[in-house]
Design goal:
The protein has eleven helices and seven strands. By secondary structure, the chain is α/β, with parallel strands linked by helices. It has two domains: 163 residues, Alpha/beta knot (3-Layer(aba) Sandwich), CATH 3.40.1280; 64 residues, Helicase, Ruva Protein, domain 3 (Orthogonal Bundle). The protein has a seven-stranded parallel sheet with strand order 3-2-1-6-4-7-5.
């Protein structure tokens, strides 16, 4: 073998090794991104979602109360992504599907009466990949007919909007998943413009945030700040505030301590 041929062979092997290492990093980052479908009506959409995921390297599919699953239509539409369907986790509640997630991004085609922080698909993918290196992240997709409810959106730190044609903005469920899966893969293999959180920032998961919101509501009722006949409107705004702030473990502990002290003080005054 000539020196040039040997060098070319070494370069090829080196390039393959680098590509393999990069692909392993991509798989690792994407493995902690969950695709969560809520109350899906048509099993074919679940299969098409599995196909969209596998094409882009996503592997974690979670289904919340699907109308029918498993089903032959799902397998047919998966078109070779049967392994994604076989590993899919079926949940009886959104709480279960979001267990352990520190970031939830909810897709929505509609603007709501209560504005929430919103990303486009590209910015959302970058945020997801920034955090999926060390924590579980959820991408939440609603029902085919009307998407996510307001209550489900309140479980999200950010909403994601795909800027479709305003004259015809109807995206099929699996098409929306495909767009997000593509952006996630691009973010995973590219040089994403990321910002680093403080070194001592340890985010809390969905369950801890829900416990905090329950504690907050009870405390505001105890100190007579919250109107017991209409508690939800103010609580929605407070959810938006704290979801935007992304409190870490130490901050949640401090806030829960303040709430507990407030309840104890209110009880003494009665």
């Amino acid at each position: 073998m000539s020196n040039q041929t040997e060098k070319a062979a070494k370069d090829t092997r080196s390039g393959e090794a680098m590509a393999g290492a990069q692909d392993e990093d991509v798989r690792s980052d994407l493995a902690r991104v969950r695709v969560v479908l809520i109350n899906t009506t048509h099993p074919g959409n679940i299969g098409a979602t599995a196909r969209a995921m596998k094409v882009m390297g996503l592997t974690s599919l979670h289904l919340v109360t699907p109308k029918v699953f498993p089903h032959a239509d799902a397998t047919a539409m998966a078109s070779g992504a049967d392994d994604i369907l076989q590993r899919a986790t079926v949940h009886d509640s959104l709480d279960s599907a979001l267990e352990g997630c520190v970031l939830t991004l909810g897709t929505s085609a509609r603007l709501r009466s209560l504005p929430m922080p919103m990303f486009d698909a590209r910015r959302a993918a970058r945020q997801a990949l920034q955090e999926s290196g060390t924590h579980e992240v959820a991408m939440l997709f609603g029902r085919e007919r009307y998407g996510l409810t307001n209550e489900e959106m309140m479980r999200c730190q950010y909403l994601v909007n795909i800027p479709a044609n305003p004259e015809y903005s109807s995206l099929n469920l699996s098409q929306a998943v495909q767009i997000m899966a593509y952006e996630l893969r691009v973010a995973a293999i590219g040089e994403a413009d990321v910002s680093l959180p403080p070194l001592d920032w340890e985010p809390v998961d969905n369950r801890q945030m829900e416990r905090f919101f329950e504690h907050l509501e009870h405390t505001l009722l105890d100190i007579r700040f919250l109107n017991p006949r209409q508690p939800k409107k103010l609580m929605m705004r407070l959810r938006r505030l704290f979801n935007r702030a992304r409190p870490d473990q130490n901050e949640i502990n401090i806030l829960r301590g303040i709430l507990k002290a407030s309840q104890e003080a209110a009880a003494k005054d009665r």
